[in-house]
Amino acid sequence: MHTTAKRAERADAQRNRRKVLETADRLFGEGGTAVSLGEIAAAAGVGAGTVYRHFPTKDALLATVLDRRLAALGDYGAEMVRHPDPEAAFFAYLGFLADQALANRAICEALAGRGDWMEPTKAAGSCVIDSPLAVLLRRVQDSGAVRGDLDLEDVRALLSCCVGMAAATGSRDRARRLAEVVWDGLRTERNPENRNETPVGSEPRDETVVTEGGCPVCGGPIAHAGTGRPAKFCSPACRQRAFREKRKRSA
Length: 251
Hints:
Order of helices and strands: HHHHHHHHHEEH
Mean pLDDT: 76
Low-confidence stretches: 117-123, 191-212
Structural class: mainly alpha
Largest sheet: 2 strands, antiparallel
CATH class of the largest domain: Mainly Alpha
Number of helices: 10
Helix content: 55-70%
CATH topology of the largest domain: Tetracycline Repressor, domain 2
Number of strands: 2
Strand order of the largest sheet: 1-2
CATH architecture of the largest domain: Orthogonal Bundle
């Protein structure tokens, strides 16, 4: 009986801890890291004592939230590295990172402040964000789907710009749409329906048409552009020569 009560207490404590973490994740993302523990407790529907029992300080709670975020980012990055399609994996990872940053800007700024974006974690020995991004960038460039003149710092800078667009436009949805425009610019080929350009490798059109018969002056072939009245002579010189001969006959 005593063991059953302890198990029930542990299960209840775990549920409360999970509820506090989920609520803190949402509130930090929405209102920034200035959100108080009291606000988190009220939103989670638990007492302040419950929050302090699991997380004695706000810094401890924020650190746990950030660790959970890093784990999620790392898991998705590892999943994309295993993806067989380099192009699909690269752009899916960019979209995931941008979406997380747009939805939880304050948390992402806190992560960047800790250095976890660029410095290896002690447990994994690799950077949670940059390590998979570097692998995905190299793979997609090797496949020829993305411009080869980009490096990891370029892509990271573009990610930061996409996050900044949310603040500049005041609209998360518009920022997502503009981010897609940015990602499209990384591709080596765009949709040919959206541009008026001659496809690479295509032969230039030659609309020169050779008419049947030959020039009445020199007997050479007569060429024209396929528009307007058909040509009678192969060149202006033969035309002038024919005109002079006609004047002589008329004299």
